[in-house]
Task: structure prediction
Amino acid sequence: MNATKVMTVLILILGVPVLIWGLMISPYAFAWDPLLKQRNDEGIFIARVLFSSLLVLFACGLFLARKGGGYWVKAVYIGALVVAVFKLLEMVSL
Result:
């Protein structure tokens, strides 16, 4: 197996669960109660750092997949990049 293919699969195996975990970070503390709803500044900071690093990780993975990956690998990377970009834009706008 080619080293490029191993790296693309390794990035997917490590990056996608972290992305799913990061989607669960709420920008609001006590989001379920409208009276107690307030900004979660620590969660927003963690999400900004997490999604920035995931953006770089998935961009590198897409670059590697461009050279030796299949179509499904490229599609997963593009989807993960789109989700990471939009979530990062949401966290930066808060």
